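User: Can you predict the 3D structure for this chain?
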Amino acid sequence: MTTRRHFMGQSAVAASAIAFPLVGGAQPKPVKVGVLHPVTGALAYSGQQCRMGALMAIEDINKAGGIKSLGGAKIEAMLGDAQSSPQAGTAEIEKMNEAGVSAVVGAFASAICLATTQAAAKYNLPHVVDVGVADQIVERGLKNTFRFGPGYKKCAEVAVASLHALNTAAGKPARTVMIVHEESLFGTGTANLLAKELPGYGYEVKEIIKHANPTRDFNNIALRIKQVNPDILIPANYYNEYALLVRTLQQQKITPKAIYSVLGGAASSYKFVKEFPEAANGIIDCNHWFNPKDKRSAELKKRVEAQGQFFSYEVFMTYTAMMLLADAIDRAKSPDRAAIIEALATSKFANHIMPYGPTQFVNGQNMGAQPLMTQVYKGDIKVIVPRDYREVEPVFPLNS
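Assistant: Here is the predicted structure, written as structure tokens:
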């Protein structure tokens, strides 16, 4: 009897240990993830917005029980500042690799992402790109690199096709285009793609103007726009320059038939709409945007605004990129880098607020990713194209 009782007692202890592996305060080791953005320098606003999105996602993942397949392991962020330069971004990757992170999410700007993904590839370090739209990022055969959102080629194609549809429906009042872009990889690449696409639809690109980043005075460029007098102005620049350009046009009473942005830095920004409602009114943008029919989008927006911040594309793009990574770590059942890369490569992640459907990576690019067309309407931003997500009818041309 004694022996039997002793055996049963041991069995009960063993069973409870299996059922409750964390009894006694032993927590699973956290999974360390690099969160890398330009939070100082010229791109600081966007970088800070990205970081906020990443940290909100980590908070939600951890609150929901962490990485389930790893016994509820929490995600632990290692924050990095790319200082708005590719070189600083690369230096941060080196630090993150030394610290043993399992993966990196970042790094907003195309030029920085180009450098950080390359640096991470040396260490087989999974790098989820949150925003960077330059297609070179995913065209170099890097097995560690995954971009959840669309690239600028896809955005340019959607933008020009949508422009043509809007213009045709209005009786083709617009025929000439002028492009103003910032000088880095993002702006230059976007402008080149547009200049190639537009003539095929019958539009004449009258002029392409490149400007420095940062630029603090757009008076001379505005004067040139006035002289050329295009039907459509297409800006491709980051937030500060975009806002200043459009405000300068408003001050000088320059009113093209449409300001039609492709990845416009301020065009789909609640901050811009609130601060400069008249300058923003009617602007159309082809950009990253959430699914307006998913109620979780509105809930996340409320949470961001409760912090006194704006729900910008940087926030929800990085939030979703972090969710994608957490899903991959859970399926990998391991913090091992190679296992996470394999899980990302085979991802079918669909539990997100973007208008993409299930994820499918081909050479690191999510093939289902698409931009939406938005228009500033009555002090708000509304989806106008495609029809599946449309919230209001488009107003085109703006000045008929």
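Residues 153-287+373-389 form a domain with the Rossmann fold fold (CATH 3.40.50.2300). The chain has two domains: 31-150+294-369, 153-287+373-389.
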